[in-house]
Amino acid sequence: GENVEQHPSTLSVQEGDSAVIKCTYSDSASNYFPWYKQELGKRPQLIIDIRSNVGEKKDQRIAVTLNKTAKHFSLHITETQPEDSAVYFCAASILLGNKLVFGAGTILRVKS
Amino acid sequence: KAGVTQTPRYLIKTRGQQVTLSCSPISGHRSVSWYQQTPGQGLQFLFEYFSETQRNKGNFPGRFSGRQFSNSRSEMNVSTLELGDSALYLCASSERGTAHQETQYFGPGTRLLVL
């Protein structure tokens, strides 16, 4: 079955710096890759997603890149702010249905 | 639209008991998925229901079951609870659950503690 690996497990950055989180997936049939942000005690919330027919997607300070050949995708957050501090999860799913396979998560700390 | 709701929010049970958790999707959403979140295993897919039918299933034992009603509300049941079942159980809904993946919106979760 699908397996998603996520690195790093923790990431500390200074406010204003960029943060990059990387994920690799095993199933070449995967074609949908969302990123979720989960603040302490809250529900996961989608921040950006990308489909396999696109190599990059941007939404203000957040961008995601996808390399299908290498089977990896990355989340880029620029100009980080303290409110970006949270746990970030990458996920992958195949064409049929809504089964998301999640990475282990990255704890992002933005120091002010 | 109101978001995904889950009841109860917190639950304490003892080993051997059974528990039923409820999830009400966003109005109009027909697909409901369930996930278990633990510090050790992270977020793991349990199962997905669409139009009252289980469409996908994760790698959990048969003690974990679910169902979906005609109004798209879903319940999951865990029988013969074990200590390791202590977790945050999240449900997520999406609109059509068609071949083109849609955003899954998560509920606040039910935190289950098994003593």
In short:
The complex is a heterodimer of chains A (112) and B (115). Chain A is 0% helix and 54% strand.
Topology:
The complex is a heterodimer of chains A (112) and B (115).
Chain A: E1 4-7, E2 10-14, E3 19-25, E4 32-38, E5 45-51, E6 56-59, E7 62-67, E8 72-77, E9 86-92, E10 101-102, E11 106-111
Parallel strand pairs in A: 2-11
Antiparallel strand pairs in A: 1-3, 3-8, 4-5, 4-9, 6-7, 7-8, 9-10, 9-11
Chain B: E1 5-7, E2 10-13, E3 19-24, E4 31-38, E5 42-50, E6 53-57, E7 64-68, E8 74-78, E9 87-94, E10 105-106, E11 110-114
Parallel strand pairs in B: 2-11
Antiparallel strand pairs in B: 1-3, 3-8, 4-5, 4-9, 5-6, 7-8, 9-10, 9-11
The sequence of SSEs of chain B as H and E is EEEEEEEEEEE
Termini separation of chain B: 37 Å
Order of helices and strands of chain A: EEEEEEEEEEE
Assembly context of the chains: heterodimer
Helical content of chain B stands at: under 10%
Mean pLDDT over the residues of chain A: 94
Question: What is the radius of gyration of chain A computed over CA atoms, rounded to a whole number of angstroms?
Answer: 13 Å
Percent helix of chain A, as a range, is under 10%
Structural class category of chain A:
mainly beta
Distance between the termini of chain A: 41 Å
- What's the helix count of chain B? 0
Low-confidence stretches of chain A: none
- Beta-strand segment tally of chain B: 11
- The global form of chain A is globular
Structure description:
- The complex is a heterodimer of chains A (112) and B (115).
- Chain A is an all-beta fold and 112 residues long.
- Helix content of chain A is 0%, strand content 54%.
- Chain B has 115 residues and is mostly beta strands.
- In chain B, 0% of the residues lie in helices and 52% in strands.
- Chain B has no helices and eleven strands.
- The chains are: A mainly beta (112), B mainly beta (115).
- At the A-B interface, strand 4, strand 5 and strand 10 of A face strand 4, strand 5, strand 9 and strand 10 of B.
